[in-house]
């Protein structure tokens, strides 16, 4: 073969190389330029979240968080029989019948907990979230949502349909509580535990606890007025606290108006409702592979190569916003971002199979992605004598119970 | 692509290690591209340095729309073309003094040629019209598509393909001529 016959391959071999000294010198010059640039500005250059938010991925995620939070809360609280008492009936009366309710609810614990503020007027909700400068007006009857975002002087509004499981999830934590206490009220065999008294925010409160299969609902009410002042929902390791509750306070209907307020510009922003499978078959599609992928996304994208200190539904939910933020910052194409978020979520769905009643454990705190020696998660599949374990390099093996991390 | 976006994101947050990773990932390819465009080892080094410094300076507003490698290759091509034009202007202005090609200057950058045949090929490349050499270098070393090169050169994709084909034909011709000698 003549040399010119393979001319393209030959050109590929025309590689230039540089000495290590030159390489270091050039890199040094560039890094020096970087230092000089950094001296000229007050701080590290951080992406402007509000510039990116309307690039639509983040907005979608923001909406999805609300949806997912609702869905997860409702997912496992299946109807176990409860017993009603007169006192309890007094406590739940305003929950069931108040036309307006103002409440805050916190999903998870600690400084990263996701906090939402709901103003409920009939079937409409005005919702704001602790970590997002965004207001959502939800019309549960018409299955529509109006999203209002302020970006400095720019104010943007968008309408979106919320249907199917999305609507269920967006149906508010109050609806969930109402459903539970309705079942309690109508079931003479239901068991309600009297938790006695304690002081909450300077008020003497009486508590009641009702238990489901893998979940529980605690209601603390003002001893004098019988009005609920704090409601705690636990599902496995996920906790949700409803607080600062006010019933039947006079509220302006305009707070939940679906009209676009003056000064806002309408934008067609697609809010993506993540369709979590229905409660009856919600685990059917999620597999161990999804969990592994979810852990990879968590470590690689959200935490820069380290596994989280803890995992569980509440932790997953809290990561939705950082993941959305990362995706917006990375400027992933929308479809890629959606896939990423969906994969992340699916792993969480798989984990719930064990989180709510199964045998599992997590030891990923401090472990770096790629560490093939350390076990980060283990769970026992139904009917199995051994455990499936996931290592820091995301390989998966079967091991005996005695070999599990202590 | 995702890896690059993550690196850029970290870099924007002030992470030097992320920039170092970007540099180490692409500096070699960019040096080869610039070297083949200019046939100037020192010039290639300067251009690569300038391109990365420009990236540092503009990172606050930098928006990656395609691949990072394509972006860097495009920057290298633009600067190389500017460099060539500058040289031509200098040569015209100083007609009496033939421009000494920087390729002959002593440099710490070396063309990693391990055979006489490749050395001849390298010399043959310098005989091509710059437009053809640029297309070949961007396509083979810059990994740009013909469509991207067309946008860069502000010409049609067909013209880019023609330049590529003519360039390779000429190289074959030169190389076969060398072989027959």
Report on this model:
The complex is a heterodimer of chains A (406) and B (181). With 406 residues, chain A is α+β, with helices and mostly antiparallel strands. Chain A has 2 domains: 50-266, outer membrane lipoprotein receptor (LolB), chain A, CATH 2.50.20; 281-403, no CATH class. In chain A, 33% of the residues lie in helices and 28% in strands. Chain A contains 10 helices and 17 strands. Chain A has a 12-stranded mixed beta sheet. In chain A, α4 (57-75) packs antiparallel against α9 and α5 runs antiparallel to α7. The longest helix of chain A has 22 residues, at 334-355. The radius of gyration of chain A is 26 Å and the shape is globular. Mean pLDDT of chain A is 73; it is low at 42-86, 165-169 and 270-284. With 181 residues, chain B is an all-alpha fold. Chain B has 2 domains: 1-100, Rna Polymerase Sigma Factor, Chain: A; 110-181, Winged helix-like DNA-binding domain superfamily/Winged helix DNA-binding domain (Arc Repressor Mutant, subunit A), CATH 1.10.10.10. Helix content of chain B is 73%, strand content 2%. Chain B has 8 helices and 1 strand. Chain B has helices spanning 2-12, 16-38, 41-58, 68-93, 116-127, 130-140, 146-153, 157-180, and one strand at 109-111. In chain B, α1 crosses α2 (16-38) and α6 (130-140) packs across α8 (157-180). Chain B starts with a helix and ends with a helix. Residues 96-111 of chain B have low confidence and may be disordered. β1 of chain A pairs antiparallel with β1 of chain B, so a sheet runs across the interface.
Which architecture of the largest domain in chain B does the CATH hierarchy give at level 2? Orthogonal Bundle
Number of strands of chain A: 17
What letter string, H or E per element, gives the SSE order of chain B? HHHHEHHHH
Q: Which stretches of chain A of 5+ consecutive residues score pLDDT under 50?
A: 42-86, 165-169, 270-284
Helix-strand category of chain A = alpha+beta
Mean pLDDT of chain A: 73
């Amino acid at each position: 073969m003549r040399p010119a016959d393979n001319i393209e391959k030959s050109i590929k071999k025309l590689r230039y190389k540089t000495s290590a000294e030159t390489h270091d010198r050039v890199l040094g010059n560039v890094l020096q330029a970087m230092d000089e640039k950094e001296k000229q500005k007050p701080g590290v250059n951080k992406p402007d979240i509000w510039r990116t938010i309307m690039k639509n991925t983040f907005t979608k995620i923001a909406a999805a968080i609300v949806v997912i939070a609702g869905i997860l809360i409702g997912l496992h609280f299946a109807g176990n029989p409860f017993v009603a008492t007169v006192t309890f009936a007094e406590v739940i009366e305003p929950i069931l019948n108040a036309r307006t309710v103002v409440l805050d609810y916190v999903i998870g614990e600690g400084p990263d907990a996701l906090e939402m503020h709901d103003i409920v007027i009939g079937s409409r909700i005005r919702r704001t979230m602790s970590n997002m400068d965004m207001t959502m007006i939800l019309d549960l009857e018409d299955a529509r949502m109006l999203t209002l975002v302020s970006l400095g002087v720019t104010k943007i509004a968008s309408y979106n349909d919320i249907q199917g499981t999305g609507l269920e999830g967006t149906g508010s934590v109050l609806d969930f509580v109402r459903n539970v206490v309705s079942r309690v009220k109508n079931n003479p065999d239901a068991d309600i535990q009297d938790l006695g008294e304690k002081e909450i925010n300077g008020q003497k409160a009486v508590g009641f606890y009702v238990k489901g299969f893998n979940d529980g609902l605690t209601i603390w009410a003002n001893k004098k007025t019988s009005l609920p002042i704090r409601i705690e929902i636990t599902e496995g390791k996920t906790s949700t606290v409803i607080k600062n509750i006010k019933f039947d306070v006079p509220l302006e209907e305009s707070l939940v108006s679906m009209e676009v307020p003056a000064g806002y510009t309408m934008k067609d922003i697609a809010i993506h409702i993540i369709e979590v499978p229905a409660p009856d078959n919600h685990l059917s599609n999620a597999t161990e592979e999804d969990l592994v992928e979810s852990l990879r996304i968590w470590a690689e994208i959200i935490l820069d190569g380290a596994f989280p200190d803890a995992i569980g539904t509440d932790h997953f939910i809290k990561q939705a916003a950082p993941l959305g933020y990362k995706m917006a910052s990375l400027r992933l194409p929308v479809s890629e971002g959606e896939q990423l978020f969906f994969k992340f979520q699916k792993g969480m769905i798989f984990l719930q199979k064990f989180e709510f009643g199964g045998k599992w454990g997590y030891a990923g705190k401090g472990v770096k992605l790629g560490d093939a020696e350390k076990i980060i998660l283990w769970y026992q599949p139904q009917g199995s004598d051994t455990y499936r374990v996931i290592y820091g390099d995301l390989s998966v093996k079967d091991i005996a119970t005695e070999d599990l991390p202590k | 692509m995702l890896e690059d976006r993550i690196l850029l994101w970290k870099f924007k947050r002030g992470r030097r290690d992320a920039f170092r990773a970007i540099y180490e990932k692409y500096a070699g390819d960019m040096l080869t591209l610039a070297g083949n465009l200019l046939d100037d080892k020192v010039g290639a080094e300067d251009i690569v340095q300038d391109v990365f410094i420009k990236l540092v300076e503009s990172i606050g507003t930098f928006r990656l729309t395609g691949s990072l490698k394509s972006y860097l290759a495009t920057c290298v091509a633009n600067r190389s073309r500017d460099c060539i034009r500058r040289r031509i202007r200098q040569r015209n202005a100083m007609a009496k003094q033939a421009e000494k090609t920087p390729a002959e200057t002593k440099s710490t950058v070396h063309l990693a040629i391990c055979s006489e045949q490749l050395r001849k090929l390298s010399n043959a490349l310098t005989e091509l019209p710059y437009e053809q050499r640029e297309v070949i270098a961007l396509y083979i070393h810059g990994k740009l598509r013909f469509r991207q090169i067309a946008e860069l050169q502000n010409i049609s994709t067909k013209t880019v393909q023609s330049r590529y084909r003519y360039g390779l034909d000429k190289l074959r011709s030169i190389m076969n001529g060398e072989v027959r000698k």
